[in-house]
User: Which sequence fits this backbone?
């Protein structure tokens, strides 16, 4: 499973990512965490990112894309991942599309955590309190002034991704104002079709291509498949009529189910 969590600072991306990795055995890829680690270690990337992050601005696309390109190739990411904080700009999303395409991988879903901006400062303050109580160093960007910059960056540069992924049919929205468990339940409902069981392959079956329609039929709601059956029998009758006409006109009958170039043009590759 490969999922993106989208939302402004403090929306709950990290919190929900933790739930997803526990539930699905996938890894969390948080560019924010990776950059903070680089800053703490004083690596070249960290030195470049430090002041940018402290201002609440976005680190350049080429830096984060290179980090993610390297990370998704690691063995622990093979089973899937939840992207938390990446992509954050349209060029990052396009780079991700390319990276996944080159590897023959696809996204299952992009989940937007919808929250009222008014709540975000309270959440950040709560995190500061929690981290302080645990004796942890608080984040240099967790303060009201920098939060304004982070929110501005979200609105200007990241929010357009909602349209980007909606146009690809990948976007799911959840109410991020709900309690943590409720948000998790909403996400589970969105992801349920993404991990619907595939049709079991029978011994001796040669091609997975044959199993695909069966899996689709299993996943389809009953009412749809009844309508589908009606459409199918109408289509079969139309094929027979055409075949009879063709025979009358001196052409051989068209094999039922044989594809015309028109049929092929209509074929839409399945997602998943
Ligand atoms: P990053 O680390 O990604 O921070 P962020 O997006 O600002 O998000 P946060 O980590 O603050 O919040 P979250 O949504 O994960 O919420 P959380 O679960 O922690 O990025 C930091 C910086 O790195 C950026 O500003 C940028 O400079 C740079 N960067 C990172 N990625 C980049 C990229 N791709 N491109 C360029 N630059 C990049 O929750 C927050 C608090 O709320 C917690 O206390 C939590 O307990 C609580 N909470 C969570 N859910 C709920 C709930 N449902 N109800 C009540 N409380 C809740």
Assistant:
């Amino acid at each position: 499973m490969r999922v993106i969590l989208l939302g402004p600072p403090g929306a709950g991306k990290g919190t929900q990512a933790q739930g997803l990795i526990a539930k699905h055995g996938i890894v969390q890829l948080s560019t924010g965490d990776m950059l903070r680690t680089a800053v703490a270690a004083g690596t070249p990337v960290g030195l470049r990112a430090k002041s940018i992050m402290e201002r609440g601005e976005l680190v350049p696309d080429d830096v984060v894309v290179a980090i993610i390109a390297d990370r998704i190739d690691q063995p622990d990411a093979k089973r899937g991942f939840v992207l938390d904080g990446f992509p954050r700009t349209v060029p990052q999303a396009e780079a991700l599309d390319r990276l996944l395409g080159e590897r023959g991988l696809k996204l299952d879903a992009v989940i937007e955590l919808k929250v009222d901006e008014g709540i975000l400062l309270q959440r950040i303050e709560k995190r500061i309190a929690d981290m302080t109580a645990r004796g942890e160093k608080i984040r240099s960007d967790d303060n009201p002034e920098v939060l304004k910059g982070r929110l501005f960056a979200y609105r200007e540069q990241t929010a357009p991704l909602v349209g980007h992924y909606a146009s690809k049919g990948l976007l799911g929205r959840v109410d991020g104002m709900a309690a943590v468990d409720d948000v998790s339940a909403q996400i589970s409902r969105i992801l349920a079709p993404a991990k619907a069981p595939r049709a079991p392959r029978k011994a001796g079956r040669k091609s997975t291509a044959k199993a695909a329609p069966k899996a689709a039929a299993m996943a389809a709601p009953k009412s749809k498949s009844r309508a589908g059956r009606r459409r199918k029998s109408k289509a079969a009758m139309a094929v027979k009529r055409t075949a009879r006409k063709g025979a009358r006109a001196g052409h051989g009958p068209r094999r039922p189910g044989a594809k015309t170039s028109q049929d092929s043009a209509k074929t839409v590759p399945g997602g998943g």
